Amino acid sequence: MAKKKKIEPLKNITRHELVPDHVILTDKEKQQLLTEYHIEPSQLPKMLTTDPVALSIGAESGEIVKITRESYTAKESTAYRLVVEDNK
Amino acid sequence: MERVNSITKKIGEIYFSLLSPNELRKMSATKVITADTYDDDGFPIAMGLMDPRMGVIEPGLRCKTCGQRVGKDKCPGHFGHIDLAMPVIHVGHIKIIRDSLRSTCRDCGHLLLTKNERENFIEEIKNYDREGRQKTYLFKQIVKDARKASKCPHCGREVGKIELDKPTTLRENGKKLTPSEVREWLEKIRDEDLPLLDINVKASRPEWTVLTVLPVPPVTVRPSVTLQSGERSEDDLTHKLVDVIRINQRLQENRDAGAPQLIVEDLWELLQYHITTYLDNQTSGIPPARHRSGRPLKTLAQRLKGKEGRFRSNLSGKRVNFSARTVISPDPNLSINEIGIPIKVAEELTIPVRVTTHNIDWCKEMITQKYDPSITAEYVPGVNYVIKNIGGIKRRIKISDRNAEMVADKLEVGSIIERQMMDGDLALFNRQPSLHRMSMMAHRVRVVPGKTFRFNLCVCPPYNADFDGDEMNLHVIQGEEAKAEAEILMKVQENILSPRFGGAIIGGIHDIISGVFLLTNKERKVPIEVASYLLGSVQYHGDIDVQKEDGKKYVMGRDIFSTILPKDLTIRFKSKTYENIDSDEAYVVIKNGRLLQGTIDENSIGAFKGRILDRVIRDHGMDAGRAFIDNATRLGIAVATMFGFTTSIEDEDIPDEAQHKIAEGLDDAMKQIRKLVKAFEQGELESLPGRSIEETLEMEIMRVTGKARDMAGEIAGEHLGLENSAVIMAKSGARGSMLNLSQMSGLVGQQAVRGERISRGYQYRTLPHFKKGDLGASAKGFVGSSYKKGLTPTEYFFHSMGGREGLVDTAVRTSRSGYMQRRLINALEDVKVEKDGTVRQAGGQIIQFIYGEDGIDPTRSLNGKSVDVDRIIEEVLEEA
User: Fold this and answer.
1) pLDDT band at B286 (very low <50, low <70, confident <90, very high)
2) Mean pLDDT, to the nearest integer, of B262-274?
3) With contacts defined as CB-CB under 8 Å, which chain B residues touch A2?
4) Separation of alpha carbons B412 and B363, rounded Å
5) Which of B346, B702, B727, B784 has a beta carbon 3.0–4.6 Å from B447's, enabling a disulfide?
6) Residues of chain A positioned with their CB less than 8 A from the CB of B131
7) Predicted local confidence at residue B448, as pLDDT
8) Rounded Cα–Cα distance for residues B575 and B602 (Å)
9) What b-and-e string marks burial along B490-507, b requiring 16 or more CB atoms within 10 Å of the CB?
10) A42 and B132 in contact by Cβ < 8 A?
11) What's the pLDDT score for residue A1?
């Protein structure tokens, strides 16, 4: 059986200037997003539950995270990622 | 053009599985028992490797299984089989075998997991399936966990350690397992456990990975060739199969005769070797099987693998019809979207045209006419084939002088004529390597005499073509849909702007820039006779200002250039020629399509930075851009022709006093370097922060040599004015640079390898001409001579070292970037921008939520920016 190593989240990682803004979507927002793009959750880009940011904001498998980052071309851009279980 | 008379079906699912021995026997047309192929009379031996029941290769012969021939009705060939005397392991499945043995019990065949563990894993697999995740890692984990058991949890048997001795030997606790033993073990594994070993129960059983029957591919797969001498030469696969059958036979005889165990085992291993190399002749750990000549045999895996394999060479890369390839040459009289194709090519390449009630008369005329240089000088397209559809069967009729009239008379609506190429057809033109989309563009055809493809010089950069013997390919568009698509997307004018940076990649080059420079620089006055020729070259109709001086009529050069500008163009920018001069004269001023002042050069009409060109494309569209480039080409070439433009070695001459000055400067630099070296040797040199003394010395010397070269360039530049053709080319951006000129007339400068002064060669010195440890300028690759004066032998040697590094670098770079690009293309091949602006993969997975995060098409942007703020401000200010 695969065993899970508990990884301690680094403190305040989200406050670092190089870490973009991560927000977990509510169920309603999630539905809205999926209907807007006509997609299944699995068609979204992924992000692991063991990702340092996922750990520090407490995102769990199946949730969708909205990421707002600075963009060279568009000043600000938003992306969405589906949080998935790590394979290990 | 044709509609296929069949139902389209969609493949829902596909899976690969193992062939079972039963299936193999069932599909086999014959058992193969004889290693021989043909008898003395040249007939294939029954139950031999060339048995006609496995298909035929000679035309006319009938296959004994299906009764069809090779040519017309196509016998696809049929498999045969060899019954192996003893089982043999299949190399391709060795990892599956190893893992299966490691995770199961030899006695009871149970998985080496407790009930609980097993259940957990089954649950996990279900979870993974539901989430659509990759299970590879999970299966690895199962094997890893099962291996940990020291005793079978079901029958209590001690678990042995399974090792794989590459490529095909397996050991349990160091003892060899024979393929028979392996097979027996695998047979014991229960169907219920197979999903945990990543095996599809419905499709395969693990014991099928150990061969008891070997399929023999159809004869059509391994055809033998008859040489002129009448000798037969067999395919590599046949050779290998001969080996397999021979050893198999000997093994069977020996075993049946009760030969000693040792001999049987030796033969068994030999059989294993032959079958392994038959499947893959590049298996590591065993020597490849060789042909009599010593060449390694090309067996099954080699047929499929790599660049020359079936996939990359025959399936992904196919050869096409309706294409041509020949040498290219320049033709400034063609438009940039035209291509001149030789008559010989035009006569061979065809376009299908369906005969309708509207064009039947034209089609009939086409069939009857033919190009004959003895009758008309002008090219006349004819028809090569007429395709008639008689009761669903298509018939191709070749048109010749004899039947042309008759075929034309009988021509019916619904037939297809394949007419030869004519002016105005659209064709795709391509040069390899096709590194970007501009490497293949659609051109309008112009049939011309000669034997080369010809095109306008301005389209050399996108193709990266020159005329030192380059060849290029042409593809004729066959269907109406393809034609429409090429028309919209692929025409040259649609590709003037590069998607890489949103600027023009096609623009004036070389003589075109020199020409317009001569026309517009320094208030050029053109005598009326010459002016009318120039205006004629761009087919100008309209008025022009004529000035009188000393009773002679002149036209200003800038007025001639203005005729090719759009009437509403207003722009002001700095010309390249005077980019370092800060005065009003350095600016080009155009108001309402009239050039008021300034010199037209690369900054006006060149690719990448041509401001006028850029503005014309942005304001008036691609077609206007094309027309502008065409006119600039014609005008530039006409000017160069009329005014004359030439350069010689004398252009690099500088006066004696300048040469003395350079020599003095050089002496100064040498003195400085000697001083630096002396200071270094006496330990008086102060090191720069963060550098050792040696590094400091090198840096200082490099600085001094660099300065010496600049000094020479400056002095030479003072004496090389704009009356000099070479300087005109360099300053206007037509070709070459001022650095090139200063190296020719001033001095060449420091040579470097890996960014440092040259320091390799002999012990403590570069060449035996110098003292050991000499750190001076000339001992370390400084070239104080000019190209014109000539280099000393040592200088020449150092110069060659620098030159060679450049060559090696480019050679290394191209191969590496080529492979990098191949990997990128494979990864990105079906990524596209969808209707909703998202970037998605073939499966619909989103890669970007908006293309480029801003949804901007780079070709419509201004150097990557979506809005040209400066321009808007300028226009608003103008209105006010």
Assistant:
1) confident
2) 91
3) 124, 138, 141
4) 10
5) B346
6) 42, 84-85
7) 92
8) 8
9) bbbbbbbbbeeebbbbbb
10) yes
11) 45
Q: What are the strands, taking DSSP E only, across B373-499?
A: 383-390, 393-398, 416-420, 426-430, 440-448, 453-455, 471-476
DSSP B781-809: TEE-S-TTT---HHHHHHHHHHHHHHHHH
Phi, psi of B14 (to 5 degrees): -145, 135
* DSSP state at residue A26: P
Residue among B121, B122, B129, B846 with most chain A CBs within 10 A, to mutate: B846
Instruction: Mark out chain B residues that contact chain A at CB-CB < 8 A.
Output: 117, 120-121, 124, 131-134, 137-138, 141, 145, 836, 838, 840, 843-850, 852-856, 864
Task: State the average pLDDT for chain B.
Answer: 88
**Which residues in B lie closer than 8 A to residue A37 (C-beta atoms)?**
836, 838, 846, 849
* Cα-based distances in Å from B696 to B669, B685, B692: 17, 8, 6
The ipTM value here is 0.86
Residue B1 has pLDDT above 50, yes or no: no
Q: In a mutagenesis test of the A interface, which of B119, B135, B849 is the best target, namely the one with the most A β-carbons within 10 Å?
A: B849
Residue written as token pair 């000019």 = B786
Residue among B605, B604, B587 nearest B596 (CA): B587
3-state secondary structure of B469: coil
Please give the Cα distance from B43 to B61 (Å, whole number). 11
B301 or B8, which is more confident?
B301
Strand partners, B176: B171
Considering only alpha carbons, which residue of chain A is nearest residue B838? A37
CB contact under 8 A, B844 and A85: no
Distance CA(B514)–CA(B509), nearest Å, equals 8
pLDDT tens per residue, range B762-775: 998 899 999 888 88
Give me the phi and psi of B175, to 5 degrees please. -95, 130
- Residue-wise pLDDT tens digits, B190-215: 888 888 888 888 888 998 999 999 99
Round to whole Å and give the CA distance between B831 and B842.
7
Nearest by CB to residue A73, choosing from B844, B849, B854, is B854
Tokens at residue B498, please? 């590069």
Q: How many other C-beta atoms can be found within 10 angstroms of the C-beta atom of residue B373?
A: 10
In angstroms, the CA B136 to CA B123 distance is 16
Instruction: Give me the total of CB pairs closer than 8 Å, taking one residue from chain A and one from chain B.
Output: 58
Q: What distance in Å separates the CA atoms of residue B657 and residue B603, rounded to the nearest whole number?
A: 35
| Segment A53-88, tens digit of pLDDT | 888 888 888 899 999 998 887 788 999 999 988 765
Residues of B in contact with A42 (CB under 8 A): 131-132, 845
Nearest to A74 among B138, B836, B853 (CB): B853
**C-alpha count within 13 angstroms, C-beta hemisphere, residue B716:** 27
DSSP symbol at A32 = H
- CA B24 – CA B81 distance, rounded (Å): 7
Please calculate the CA angle B411-B413-B414 and round it to the nearest 5 degrees: 110
Average pLDDT over residues B213-231: 86
Is B505:B723 a contact under the CB 8 Å cutoff?
Answer: no
* pLDDT of B488 above 80: yes
pLDDT at B492: 93
